[in-house]
């Protein structure tokens, strides 16, 4: 048997996602069905034989690396958003990104496989993945084994509520009409679904209502404010690249 230190892992793929920065990414997969991405398989794994039969499954597991985390920043306790961002639990009782080994897992919907221009990619949706995330492995989701009807979910037993109504300023409406669908993404629906879930840090929600928030989404910077329980998108600005 090889010693543990002898095991190394090379990425088999790379994520191309609508999320260009960590702020705004859904806290779990499947919360925002409109959030789309693709998994580009890297050589030598970009072989059509490696994904033969995969389209028979509606969903897949992705094992990946939290590549944007500062190295060596694991913590024995963390503050899960579902507990208001103030109560601490053990890191192994959470899905925090700050782990001894920065490995994540997400179950996502498989929408198709494309093989064009020498590029093999899996089209996926319902993602919670940062752009350029390295993928370590892909496995089919098996409903009989992976969906356990009698399992308990601890402090995250129920799907989180979507507490906010989302509306758009006149300026944002004009920008949305000009943007149309970006690479097949319905930008309006994506923004609505993301902001209805309230991406703000849980521990700052009661003290930061008056500020303007912003995030990068696809090729746009999205700005919004919170007035009462309503999120108002004030600007949708194209990012010049």
Describe the structure.
The protein has 241 residues and is mainly beta. The protein is 10% helix and 33% strand. It contains 3 helices and 14 strands. The strands form 4 sheets. Strands 1-2-7-6-3-8 form a 6-stranded antiparallel barrel. A 4-stranded mixed β-sheet has the order 9-14-13-12. A hairpin with a 2-residue loop joins strand 12 and strand 13 (220-227). The longest helix is centred in the last third of the chain and has 10 residues, at 170-179. It starts with 12 loop residues before the first strand and ends with a strand. The mean pLDDT is 89.
List key phrases describing it:
241 residues; mainly beta; 6-stranded antiparallel beta barrel; 4-stranded mixed β-sheet; 3 helices; 14 strands; globular
Mean pLDDT: 89
**Spatial gap, N to C terminus:** 50 Å
Estimated radius of gyration: 19 Å
Count of helical regions: 3
Query: Helical proportion?
Result: under 10%
Please summarize the sheet with the most strands. 6 strands, antiparallel, barrel
What's the topology here?
Blueprint: E1 13-17, E2 36-41, E3 59-65, E4 77-78, E5 89-90, E6 103-116, E7 119-125, E8 134-140, H1 143-146, E9 165-168, H2 170-179, E10 181-182, E11 185-186, H3 187-196, E12 213-217, E13 220-227, E14 230-238
Parallel strand pairs: 9-14
Antiparallel strand pairs: 1-2, 1-8, 2-7, 3-6, 3-8, 4-5, 6-7, 10-11, 12-13, 13-14
């Amino acid at each position: 048997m090889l010693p543990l230190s002898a095991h190394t892992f090379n990425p088999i793929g790379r994520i191309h996602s609508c999320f260009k920065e960590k702020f705004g990414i859904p806290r779990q997969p499947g919360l925002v069905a409109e959030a789309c991405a693709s998994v580009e398989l890297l050589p030598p794994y970009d072989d059509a034989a490696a994904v033969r039969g995969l389209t028979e499954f509606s969903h897949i597991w992705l094992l990946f690396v939290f590549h944007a985390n500062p190295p060596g920043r694991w913590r024995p306790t963390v503050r899960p958003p579902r507990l208001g961002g103030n109560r601490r639990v053990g890191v192994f009782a959470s899905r925090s990104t700050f782990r001894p080994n920065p490995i994540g897992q997400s179950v996502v919907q498989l929408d198709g496989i494309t093989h064009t221009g020498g590029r093999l990619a899996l089209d996926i949706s319902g993602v919670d993945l940062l752009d350029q995330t390295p993928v370590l492995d892909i496995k089919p989701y098996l409903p009989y084994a992976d969906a356990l009807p009698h399992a308990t979910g601890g402090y995250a037993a129920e799907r989180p509520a979507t507490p906010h109504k989302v509306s758009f300023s006149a300026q944002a409406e004009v920008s949305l009409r000009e943007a149309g669908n970006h690479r097949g993404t319905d930008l309006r629906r994506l923004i609505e679904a993301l902001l209805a879930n309230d991406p703000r840090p849980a521990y700052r929600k009661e003290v930061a209502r008056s500020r303007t928030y912003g995030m990068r989404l696809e090729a746009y910077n999205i700005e919004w404010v919170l007035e009462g329980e309503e999120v108002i998108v004030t600007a949708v600005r194209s990012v010049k690249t």
